[in-house]
């Protein structure tokens, strides 16, 4: 078949009628912009993968590293040399099953599948294939139990501060009352302090640890949008002390030898493992202090929209989906207030 004088597709048929029908269908697809060159799907998947990696330069560094690991260790050995158009949904489904059989956890296998889906989605966008054959493959779920985040009361926050060792122990309060992710706390500089309309911290960058070597690097925030978190009064003197005598570009909570502070080094310095056992919370993670912030603020009656802005969520609905269960007690407190109003109204009616 020719298009504008150039041969774009060739296929052999036994009957002339079938050939003519096929040619008409190809011309229709050309007119509608639905036609693609089947020869583009004959290239090996590794060729498409290199183009895919090049297209992801704007993605988060750890995301790119994780995709490289998934490709090198699991996708390329099985599919790298195959023509991209030859990979079927059954092939991908069997591959996921073997990942589990060979010892991958369901969550890890799901991450590898997500990388494969993204790669084949790029192949569709690039006109290599018409269908993403990994899109309908179900992610493994057997044995996956979502870990509920733990949270502390205000009293337990202070107990944890006192159980931690050294000058870095008070950072527990910043994490638990300010709702910062560790990477956001590590990325704070002295110049990020704000005083209007009240004391706060302007979050503008994150300091991340690479997922393969643990090296620290500066990255954008998770949402890629800066935000300001308020400082409760108890935190202001501590932030004043850590800021004293430093240039605006200096790290606010810098490591003992300078530079940003890593989570792993901080946990060792404060004796995190022993401290959480001492307060009866042996499974508490540093990230659970963020859950604690949501619990404390919502429990204090803060509007979900306020908590959303503190935590940097996309919407208040997302905040309530994640943390709404933490304010169950508020339901009964509200019920008591409504009950008091009802009793008062009834008393006034009787007095009349």
Task: Provide a descriptive summary of the structure in words.
The chain starts with a strand and ends with a helix. The chain has helices at residues 16-32, 45-55, 61-79, 89-101, 106-125, 154-163, 171-178, 182-186, 236-243, 263-270, 272-278, 288-299, 304-311, 316-323, 328-351; strands at 2-3, 6-7, 193-194, 200-203, 206-209, 216-219, 227-230. The protein is mostly helical and 352 residues long. It is built from 15 helices and seven strands. 51% of the residues lie in helices and 6% in strands. Strands 3-4-7 form a three-stranded antiparallel sheet. Helix 2 packs antiparallel against helix 3 (61-79). The protein has three domains: 2-29; 41-125, DNA polymerase, domain 1 (Orthogonal Bundle); 154-329, Intergrase catalytic core (hpI Integrase, Chain A, Orthogonal Bundle).
Short description:
With 352 residues, the chain is mainly alpha-helical. It has helices spanning 16-32, 45-55, 61-79, 89-101, 106-125, 154-163, 171-178, 182-186, 236-243, 263-270, 272-278, 288-299, 304-311, 316-323, 328-351, and strands spanning 2-3, 6-7, 193-194, 200-203, 206-209, 216-219, 227-230.
Topology (SSEs and partners):
Elements: E1 2-3, E2 6-7, H1 16-32, H2 45-55, H3 61-79, H4 89-101, H5 106-125, H6 154-163, H7 171-178, H8 182-186, E3 193-194, E4 200-203, E5 206-209, E6 216-219, E7 227-230, H9 236-243, H10 263-270, H11 272-278, H12 288-299, H13 304-311, H14 316-323, H15 328-351
Antiparallel strand pairs: 1-2, 3-4, 4-7, 5-6
Helix pairs in contact: 2-3, 3-5, 4-5, 6-7, 7-12, 13-14
Provide the CATH top-level class of the largest domain: Mainly Alpha
The CATH superfamily label of the largest domain reads Intergrase catalytic core
Order of helices and strands: EEHHHHHHHHEEEEEHHHHHHH
Indicate the mean pLDDT: 83
